[in-house]
């Protein structure tokens, strides 16, 4: 593991811990950034516990900064920090530092889009381009949202505190969104290798904490089930040479049966509650994919119809079109794609290319693959698309 890997793995944990110790999000983030800058200069080899080193160094940096301040508030903060125990007793329903910080960033005083962007930055350690990809929006827009959120926290004096029990349900939707997007970025990264295992693992860990905190919330259980059922397929996503293996071609014997069993059990618990929501429906789709030797695409399509009725987004429409192709054929799916517009999203032209190839329209398929390749930012996905495009030249069919 190198320093860059440590930064990605430990940044969110360190900011969360320092925020609890300092009671100041902005100061905590600056102290952690200073500590990593110091690590660049001092680390010849990685220390045994890099995260603890960063927290200790960041805390010392914060004390030094407070000592340079002359205000009464700064002196009080310094005294409080110096006399704190290393692991002070936490109070309230949320006992995980990072989960607490997620709820704090999801304060209702912040705009919904700003909450999610800020939390992905602080907890997931995601950069602005990665968050922009998750939102399918411009990088400048994401940067502005993060700046506005931090300013709002500072100007409004939003405290770092554990939400009361009655406040938790209102804070839940953006928290679920954050964990969902964090996992997705780990499962298919914006750039570089296909998978960031640390993000997937952390998103699942936090989802488990949330499920333990709110066991009667079916959407929490649905999200956890969705993440587990998706993670279960990860061992089969890459071939021996590191190439991407589509779902239809994966070796199902490589799937994690323990995670699948747990995910299916959670889906059944959700069904008994009879309060369907988007994450539960997506989890049910994951359950169908992992049930038996082949996917029941008619059932998947029916579930996508339900999901689209609740969440009529272009992404859901695109995924539904894939199911349409399996049930009703590529021509009907291609017609459905014509109604979808997702600027900058490579999977839309990639799906179109695949459907065109199945219809024998090679020239049009090649053009769609060119568009998808130009938009793809992940190395593994781009290589996969390039290989699929090359395979078109082996057929004698023409548009």
TrEMBL record:
InterPro entries with a match to the protein in the record: DUF6596, RNA_pol_sigma-70_dom, RNA_pol_sigma70_r2, RNA_pol_sigma70_r4_t2, RNA_pol_sigma_r2, RNA_pol_sigma_r3/r4-like, TPR-like_helical_dom_sf, WH-like_DNA-bd_sf
Highest rank taxon of the organism: Bacteria
Residue span, RNA polymerase sigma factor 70 region 4 type domain: 102-153
BP term (GO), one: DNA-templated transcription initiation
Domain DUF6596: from-to ranges: 171-270
Key words of the record: Sigma factor, Transcription, Transcription regulation
Family named by the database record: Belongs to the sigma-70 factor family. ECF subfamily.
PANTHER family linked: BLL6612 PROTEIN, BLL6612 PROTEIN-RELATED
Protein name according to UniProt: Sigma-70 family RNA polymerase sigma factor
